[in-house]
Amino acid sequence: MQGLDTLKARYLSAIAAAADEAALEEVRLTALGKKGEISLKMRDLGQMEPAQRQAAGGLLNALKDEVEAALRARKAALGDAALNERLRSEWLDVTLPGRPRPAGTIHPVSQVMDELTAIFADMGFAVAEGPQVESDWYNFDALNMAPEHPARQEHDTFFMARTEGDARPPHVLRTHTSPVQIRAMAAHGAPIRVIAPGRVYRMDMDQTHTPMFHQVEGLAIDRDISMANLKWVLEEFCRAFFEVPSVELRFRASHFPFTEPSAEVDIRCSWEGGQLKIGQGDKWMEILGSGMVHPKVLEAAGVDPAQWQGFAFGIGIDRLAMLKYGIPDLRAFFESDLRWLRHYGFAALDMPDLAGGLSG
To answer: Is the dihedral of CA 329, 333, 334, 340 positive or negative?
Structure first.
């Protein structure tokens, strides 16, 4: 078969000259594609005499193998060149200092939750949790709240939708974390000492109220607990939380369905120069509600009020954060403003510690 040497030289030269894989593929198709020059010559073998076909077939197969080998070698060379160019362009000096990444921050509410958990844990309180969608019984009845109590009206509480004929008791978005106290006493009995931090929901929205906010409630039940124990616990908490050497609390008689006697608690403070200072001055600021657990609440939780007694208190976590860190508007807590979060947020690894300082 004439001209095979010329054909081989032409294709080997074209393969060597291919600048990229697209050009190399074009050479392959021209030579070995269905309508390629070498492929067409292979088809012509069927028209030859047997002796001629055998000789020409051997030559064509050798040419085809040589061209394919050259194509593979050139493709590998082009791939290596592309990789080397990528490595050169993406080269990185690992000895250079790393680029600082934008640091995420801990939300003030989460920070305050961690702070108060650390404080109460140091006083022997465990953390108890419960569902946010709560039954009417746990949220109201077990807490000695009468059917006509204002909190049980739809203008104050989020009631879950019910289908007509649904015989199940109504459910609500819990209005306080007090139901957790009932569940904890029912599950563990007495004595018990727990705090219950978490989200609560009420129909209210202004500068100091939001429909969803955070609350922590405390409960201590034993045989000889009194209001004096309550006063000591709250004083120790306020002193540690506000990081001041001493505090002064004032108890004012009040009424809550779930405690008897009940008391609102004020803390001595000063607003000189528009800055809040805890533990000094001649002003008083209300910070929480408290009291001795009502006997009916103990009975509802399966605890004998003739044998056990104790105190309970409730504090708004968002309000604590506002007071301690000078945050003027409660609504900003829930607006997801990155500038606000960077300003008021806390470093992720700065865990509150009583020995090292709660707020770093």
So the answer is: positive
Residue 110 CB-density burial (10 A; 0-12 exposed, 13-18 middle, 19+ buried)? middle
Q: Give Cα 313 to chain centroid, integer Å.
A: 28
Strand partners, 289: 264, 314
Find, among 330, 291, 326, 332, the residue nearest to 310 by Cα: 291
Dihedral of the alpha carbons of 232, 237, 242, 247, in degrees to the nearest 10: 0
Distance CA 345, CA 293 (A): 36
The whole-angstrom separation of Cα 247 and Cα 218 is 19
Q: Which residues contact 217 (CB under 8 A, 6 or more apart)?
A: 176, 177, 178, 180, 181, 195, 196, 312, 313, 314, 315
Question: Could you tell me the pTM of the whole model?
Answer: 0.67
At residue 298, the pLDDT reads: 95
CA–CA separation, 90 vs 15, rounded Å? 29
pLDDT tens sequence across 217-267:
999 999 999 999 999 999 999 999 998 899 999 999 999 999 999 999 999
